[in-house]
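seq:
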Amino acid sequence: MVNEILRRLEMLESVVGRLLRVGVVTSVYPERGTVRVQLPDVHHGETSLVTRELPVRFDKTCKDKQYHMPDIGEHVMCLFLPTGQEQGCVLGAIYSQADAVPVADPDKRHFRFDDGSWFEYDRKQHLLSGHVVNGCAELTIDKDLTADIGGTAVARVEEDLSVDVGGNTIITAGGDLTAESQGVATLKSASTVRVEAPQIVQTGNITSSGAGGAVSTEVKTANVDHTGDVEQQGNYRIHGTLHVTDLVVDNPINGVLAGGA
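struct:
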């Protein structure tokens, strides 16, 4: 009776010892979500055993789907059925001396890609950051998007940035709002461009011309303090009194030159 119990315990230990094994991915089948794994501690003749195709474990595969395949040469943990290495699955990848951890911080969730791109979230600093190498970042949203950021948000784009909004766009800043360009800054509107502020400060020259050579009309309902030159191409209409300290014109104004000449 004792010998039978010992025999069964040895058999159970042998089966349990084969359930979990660490191996190296040798083949990847992305269309089926499966891989083949070489098990260094299991030999088939003089060579290490290579499993049949094993499904990779994913977090979601039905209504919601998640997908991220292991690479060839990646160390993975495999779970097998008690019947042997023919049936089982890959639980996930594990770090090793050959593949060290990319960060050493328990507060970070980090993703790094082979081309050097990465993004991460630091729950302690409440900071979401990332970097895309020699490419572009694209975000497509079919419905609404709400972003509530308690701290500072920084976006750095090495190349072009295009934002296409199908409806109204509202930007509200509790402090200063600055838009800076190293090249030409262009603001276009199919209707009216309106600037509303208690005071408007402008530095530099102003060049104004009507579209297609038409008369350019400016309606002013507030005081404007301006220093510098103003170049106007087209008619300039003033309904009211114009106070000028010094006026120089090249052509007559209503048949009279400046200074009464």
